[in-house]
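PROTEIN–LIGAND DATA SHEET

This sheet pairs a single protein chain with one bound small molecule, zinc ion, given as SMILES. Inputs appear in the order they were entered. The predicted three-dimensional arrangement of chain and ligand is reported afterwards as a token string under its own label.
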Amino acid sequence: MTTVRAAVCHEFGTPLTIETVDLRAPGPGEVEVTVAACAVCFSDISFMDGGWGGDLPAVYGHEASGVVSAVGAGSRYRTGDRVLITLIRSCGTCATCASGRPALCPTQPANQSPITLNENPVAHGLDTGAFAERVVVHESQIAPLPDGIPMDSAALISCGVITGMGAAINTARIRPGEIVVVIGAGGVGLNAIQGARLAGAARIFAVDTNPAKLDIAREFGATDGILATSEKPWAEVKRVAGRGADAVLVTVGAIQAYDTATRYLANGGRMVAVGMPHSGARSQWEPVIFTYTGNAMIGSNMGDTVLARDIPWITDLYLQGRLKLDELISGRWTLDQINEAIANTRSGAARRNVIVF
Ligand SMILES: [Zn+2]
Ligand SMILES: [Zn+2]
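PREDICTION REPORTED AS:
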């Protein structure tokens, strides 16, 4: 048992409080990681707001990196290993994991929260709880980092980067020459754009309500920017590209974006659902249009990432200078400033705010 400072949520919709909590030692199959950096993701905010339910009090934070500081029995990791920390928690042996989709593992290893406060249980938010100086997580949730990648940039890979790039490459399976639309040019959308560029898309249209974000999107590889507030934004794709999109990736949780996303598609195109509206929110589509157009709708959970397969090439692209990570960071904050960092993320102006320990 050790004590760590952590940002604790006691009530949905209220600021986090910095408190000293107890963290138990890692058991078999687990590791303790001393957190170096943890970014603020919109999923943390949705949980804090009660958008997806869950137990309280809780420690959130799941887009993190750090150094292994203790290991459970039989671990393949050693203290001192530099790793990223994700919420992808998988058994590794079920049919879903064995067929290469551990992000969808239906038999995740049981998680007895390692965090307590005055001997009362504290929920292990997103199975990670990285708004804290240390975490105890299942070994399947970490992946080694090469030397040369800064910890704050590496933290972003753990959720925003793999969710966006993975949606483009693993889920949408974008091919060279395709026309791609990415709705939302935030932390996930910019990485979907990078993924589409790496996959060889001929045209990449970024769609956002904020013109400044469209300029940033171009820096990350978008060929065109469309204001979501224009009258028929989908018409711009057909005007420029001569036809509709082969893939549209919705990277925001706004229902209006989901309701209109398929309008961008060419016949035979696919819509990929990446952004996560709150539980209970509903979209409407006309089924007959799917039949008539042959369009598809696919969900992408954590970019269908396989850590052992995808982290080595993603980090190597960064080291080669072919992937932007540092440029995704728009602010660095201490743990004590976390509520300011969250407020800045809520404002919609940020790329990624990172808590640096
Ligand atoms: Zn996230
Ligand atoms: Zn599994």
